[in-house]
Amino acid sequence: CSSPVTGAPATSQLPTNSKGRVHITFDPCKEIPASVVRQLHLDRKPPRPDTQTDGEIETVFCKYYPQTRYLLTVSASNYTLDMLKKANNHWGYQDLEVGGRRALFAYRGTAPAKDSCIINVEATTGVYGVAVDTSHEDFTPYPDCMTAARTNTDALLSYFPL
Question: How would residue 107 be classed by pLDDT, with cut points 50, 70 and 90?
Answer without folding.
Answer: very high
